[in-house]
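Section: Multi-chain targets

For targets with more than one molecule, the full set of components is provided together so that the structure can be written out for the assembly as a whole rather than chain by chain. Components appear in the order listed by the source. The example entry contains two components.
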Amino acid sequence: MARDDDDAELLARLRAGDEQAFVILVRRHHAAMLRLARGYVPSMAVAEEVVQDTWLGVLRGIAGFEGRSSVRTWLLRILVNRARTAGTRERRSVAIGHAEPAVDGSRFDETGHWAQPPEHWVEDADSRLDAAKLADRLRSAVGDLPGRQREVVTLRDIEGLTSEEVCSVLDISEGNQRVLLHRGRSRLRQALETEFGRA
Amino acid sequence: MPFKLRLSRRELVCQQVVELVTDYLEGSLSRSDRRRFEAHLAGCPHCTEYLVQMRATIELTGSLTADDLPEPVQDEFIDLYRRWQAGGEPPG
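Its structure, encoded as tokens over all components, is:
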């Protein structure tokens, strides 16, 4: 990816003491880092501290970057480690192995077929539903996800990382990444259906 | 993966299909499971609707922008950089 090459070049310039390269890197990655950090800590002010601290860590650790992952992946890994430490939010550690159905079992009959099928909302999302209200509801649903699901959904679906990048940032296996993504997305769908559905 | 649906060779039922949606979208189903998944969808409007909703959810999540997030204040970071340099810490 051209952007990754570009990032790597900026990092090389930064290593050589180029202040401007630092500013460009910050401008490029700061918003995503702040969004991610915000999920771990109680306020935007603390999130900003975590991100600042991360950039300082980047400057200190720049010689340690080996280029095996993309610069973005490397930055987000540092951020996640710091944000987890700083996070005062209650740790809701839902074990990966804990079965959590995508759809509540009561909505299926004893043969596993729908008894209460999905209520419609998608076709209304553009017309009937207020886009701002929809975004608000969804944003708060993302915020309500258990920690690990929120991490994966934020990185994959909001920040647009690949599954490989997410695994690398969070240090989880491909299989676990998929389970967390599945549970997180399933919860978000349910939240939207609950809020906007009509049978 | 400790939690895994046991797929029998028989037709999938809706309750199994909703658990396979992400694997399907991620392209991680085996070829035969993918075929069974698609065969179920072909005959089940509710699960088809469910898949549409999951896709819409992903798309809507992707369109969330953090409009409440401030842009980084450039001066603040130039300052951070200069303080770091002045601190005499060698890179790395």
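Chain B touches chain A through 46 residues (CB under 8 Å).
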